[in-house]
Amino acid sequence: MRQADFVHLHLHSAYSLLQSTIRLPQLVKKAREYRLPALALTDHGNLFGCIEFYDLAYLNGIKPIIGCELAVYSFEGVDPEWPGSSEPANHLVLLVRNRRGYQNLLQLITKAHSQGWQQEPRVSTNHLYEHKRGLIILSGCHRGEIASLLSKDDHQRAKARAAEYLEVFGGEDFFIELQPVLTESHRRLNERLLALARQLDVQVVATANSHTLDPSEAELISILKAIRLGTTVEEISPSVECGFLSPEEMKVEFNHLPEAIAATLVIAERCNLDLDLGKIRIPKFPLEKGQEPMAVLGQKAREGLQGQLLANQLEVDSDYNQRLDMELKKIEQLGLTDYFLLVADFVQFARTKGVPVGPGSGSAGSSLTAHALGITKIDPLKHGLLFERLINPLSPGPNTERTG
Questions:
Q1: In this predicted model, what pLDDT tens digit does every residue of 91-144 receive, in sequence order?
Q2: Does the predicted model carry a pTM greater than 0.90?
Q3: Secondary structure (3-state) at 235
Q4: Which DSSP category does 3 fall into?
Q5: Euclidean distance between the first and the last CA atom of the chain, given in angstroms as a whole number
Q6: Residue 393: is its pLDDT beyond 70?
Q7: By CB distance 3.0 to 4.6 Å, which of 9, 207, 249, 372 could disulfide with 40?
Q8: What are the residue ranges spanned by the domains of the chain?
């Protein structure tokens, strides 16, 4: 059987806390049954599930598309809320095209949580434009920024907003979302969105905004919403969910707009993120011009060792020198020079600021280099601790989970 000619680009997993019942293993299994060539995960305001999703998708022969749905505000202060809801509107869907886009999305989510929290993580349009490269933007669901304005009959502002996104992101990276018609209000909204897209010559794309795999779980979504809003199910509007529709069902929903279905494949083809998992990526320790990391580490370690031993009224004998030379050689071979310099730097900073630092628990206490740099307070030779407990000569790197 050939692959499906549709890709889901707007979907929320259980990592959209209290908003979805979709678990990633079941999601990927269903996507494989549908023979989807690719699949996007766009949780609300976070990337909690992106690595798990990335691995599961690739293991099942599906291209993973990493994304997120974020609330956007255009001025300092609180945007008007969605009518009849205690939750803010102005949602946009961001999809990662490449590594640059992934890094920009990380920046946006960090800013959303640290600077823009207002009932949910939000970013300003200024931040969005600052970190736009490598991202594809979709206009969002009925609580999307443009859809919200159209639902309130504010066609002028909706048009201005769409035109602004079109200018900033370009015609290849900005799409207006159309979703399955579940109610009469959805039908009217789709008509207005389509009219706006044609007026501005913006591409449209079909999405399902799935929060469940099965639409029969709509009651569960209502319960989650009630918990999230701190109210009862009776006091909120019943949830209407279309579930995780099959490609055939989506094509039936949009049989009048085949270009909206085709756009999902175009977007999926342009999203090619390689996270290159499994490799150690260590930041570079800042050095003065002309300095070599290994020379700096060796000097710091030898000076530190002498100071540690003198403080304990011990002499630097051949055992200590041989052990330190062996460790430094292994550290250099594995490319961990910057790692030790960085850890020593932040441990020293913490101690100078009165921040408590442990004596060196776990495998870190077995390193003479760590002791010499002041990372740990334990002399491994005195206690018969083997450096191989921290770094196995056959392993790719240190047991960093237990270091420090």
A1: 999 999 999 999 999 999 999 999 877 778 889 999 999 999 999 999 999 888
A2: no
A3: helix
A4: P
A5: 53
A6: no
A7: 9
A8: 24-270, 293-402
Residue 51's identity, in one-letter code, is I
Token pair in block for residue 36: 């989807």
Contact 7, 268 (CB under 8 A): yes
d(CA 88, CA 80): 7
In 230-317, where does DSSP find H-type helix? 247-253, 258-270, 293-311
Q: Which single residue is written with the structure tokens 């030779």?
A: 381
And the tokens for 100?
Answer: 């640059």
| Encoded tokens for 123 | 């970013």
Distance of alpha carbon 54 from alpha carbon 36, whole angstroms: 15
Q: Which two tokens stand for residue 297?
A: 């580490």
d(CA 41, CA 244): 12
**Residue 136 DSSP code:** E
CA distances for 31 relative to 4, 37, 50, 101, 340, angstroms: 10, 9, 16, 24, 44
Ramachandran assignment for 97, one of left (phi > 0), alpha (psi -120 to 50 degrees), beta (any other): alpha
Architecture label for domain 24-270: Alpha-Beta Barrel (3.20)
